[in-house]
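Recall that a protein's primary structure is simply its ordered list of amino acids. Everything else, from secondary elements to tertiary packing, is in principle encoded there. The following example makes that idea concrete.
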Amino acid sequence: MNNEQLLTRQDLLPFFFKDETATEKIGIEVELGVVNPDTGLSIPYKGTTGVSAILSALLKTDRWIPIVDGGHIFGLRRADGTKVSLEAAGTIEYSSPPIGDIETLVRTTEQEVLKMAEVTRELGAVLIAGSMLPFDKLEDTKWSPNDRYGLILDYLNNLGIDSLGKCVMARCISTQVTFDYVSEEDMNRKMRSLVAAVPVSNALFANSPIEEGVADGTLSHRSRYWLRWDPARCGCLPPALSGSMTFNDYIDWAIQIPMMVAVVNGVCQPMYGRTFASVLEHGFEDGTKPTFDNWRAHFSSIYTDIRLRNTIEIRSMDGLPLELVPGACAFWTGLVYHQPSVESLWKLFQNRTIEDYQKAQAEVCYKGLEAKYGNDSVRELALEMVKLAKEGLQARVNAGLEQPTVLKYLDPIEEIAVSGKTFAERLIERWKGEFDYSPANYVEAYRVK
């Protein structure tokens, strides 16, 4: 439907429909910290070496179209779906277009991110990949000059959310992978399996152990922060965990989620926790009826670990150094795009309750692969997930959908599961050893080169 048409409950459903030409592609989003190479502290938005200057310099390098809000540049986009966007505290996110195979996706992402890193370096800063801005203090956060982010922070304050919740916006840098579904049945099959497996993927990809320059033994500060964000819109997606979620089930759940902000007549305004269902029925405060853009913005502000839009977005990983991102792509593609693997994944997790899920999530932050999920070892479950991913990936190679080289991408992920030692635990060893607690040494190791 046209974005400017007025919206009714009946209009929400067709957005999720797929026709017979729907295909399965892969997308990736890589968030990158923009930091001072000596201190590891994030770079502000303004200034000759600020993030806005970096975006302006990138604009001149290729066929980019600027994204401007309130007179400020906040991102870049291309007609093919490629996007570079600015996050709340000045981190930059690269979003790929949807691509049909892992090898092409990996090479495209690498080339684009390396170009971004070169421009950033010429302006005196560097890009780092991973899951945290590990040296910034919350009180020193350099917030982007964007009204929407300010209103979201106000929303969190009104909820009584403590500072850990705000750390999601201030410090987290992550990697997310996006997949397609081709029908409602296919959506349910994929969503239920991925949602149920979240605590294990949290452990397998735990990689954010340093906070304000201190490694206190926590393996995933990022996961810990998300546990303290708005529980109405984060964490588990209950309809999917039930095992039989329809599009209507999801819509019924999503429209009851409180809205944080909305753009009404061109102005971004607070919503004071009104649900989308209420706005559908009664309109905004001035009587204006919601449009499809309002709906799109609302479900984009739902941050469940696995997020349903007109794609399926996996948000349950801590981010990884750029050279390990191919492993994440290979792992999830092997699981999601091989029906026997995704069905076996559901059998592995189908008896988990929301209570099991929440308890395991909290435990994984500190214990990683040594945590329990229900009565089972997270490490043993991770090994089984790697096995299913490998089977799915091999099947795609055999079918000519992937290059044989992608099988090697799984090796670092498998090695984590086999050893039981997370990326975070290895980083702690490096921080206390070869890095000698030096931010400059950390940045040199994890900057995009």
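The longest strand covers residues 26-35. The two ends are 43 Å apart (CA to CA).
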